[in-house]
Amino acid sequence: MIGAGNWGGSLAAGLKRAQILPCEVVKRNGWRRAKLDARVIWICVPDGAIAAVAEKIAVRRGNLRGQIVVHSSGALCVDVLESARWAGAKIAAVHPVMSFPTRRVVPLEGVMFGVEARDAAVRRELSALVRRMGGVSFAMKAEGKALYHAAGIFASPLLVAELTAAMKTAELAGLDTKTARAWVKALAEATVRNVFARGPERSFSGPFARGDVETIRLHLEALAEHPILNEVYRALARHALSTLPVKNRLAIEKAIGRRRIH
Asked: What total of structural domains would you count in the chain?
């Protein structure tokens, strides 16, 4: 393992629970003693450092034949490991579909892992490693990585941002911070349960589902003094108009300032 940050710590713990002990964990200042002779070299560093680390591995080892060099980025394809490939390694990416916001270890049992590998045998080997840790693997295509990762951003960090916007709006309405958080929590948790149990269309409610344009105008008037919240509301409203069962669509499109969707 190269790197021992938030994700690296959880990976190390997951491997240990699977009774797979890394032969070495290379930290930032540990390159001088690094042997890098394992079958799998798993890079667990930020995206911007992956290419440089792969090059460092290739220079230090020289010959990487018989080894697999893996990175954990959801956005970058395996091409970022080209220097390792030129040194003889097979290359792959194994991305955990999970959030690792702190150093606290996140269990990997049941976690989905996207596996990208040009070599089918390598993909099978890494998928088997994921299963030993209790994870669930699925194949990833290089050309879809950027959109795949963008979907993850919608599902996690930008979801946090949207919930933060909801709590801030509730506070602007006069709720204290504790009440605003509990209020948003009750609505959000019920909504998420419904979406994954019943589907988005059957979980969609409120003025957009009813076609209540006057209420939507009232929201926009109140949010006019808060430009960022207003922008977030309008952007999500436009997405709802394009994907969900909105009534009184033309009037709502006009209210939020959008041309007709074809």
From this structure: 2
**pTM value?**
0.85
- Residue % of the chain over a pLDDT of 70: 98
Q: Is residue 149 part of a domain?
A: no
CB 73 within 8 A of CB 48: no
H helical segments located in 22-156: 50-61, 82-86, 120-132, 145-155
- Pair 126, 159 in one domain: no
User: DSSP letters along 173-203, please?
Assistant: TT--HHHHHHHHHHHHHHHHHHHHHH-SGGG
Residue 43's Cβ-side half-sphere holds a number of Cα atoms within 13 Å equal to 29
Residue 150 lies in a domain: no
Where residue 95 falls among pLDDT bands split at 50, 70, 90?
very high
Tokens of 228: 């960022």
Q: 54 and 90 share a domain?
A: yes
- Cα R_g (the chain), whole angstroms: 23
Q: What are phi and psi of 117, to 5 degrees?
A: -155, 135
pLDDT of residue 177: 97
pLDDT digits (tens, 9 = 90+) for 17-57: 999 988 999 998 888 899 999 999 999 999 999 999 999 99
Same-domain check for residues 172 and 231: yes
Question: Domain check: are 204 and 227 in the same one?
Answer: yes
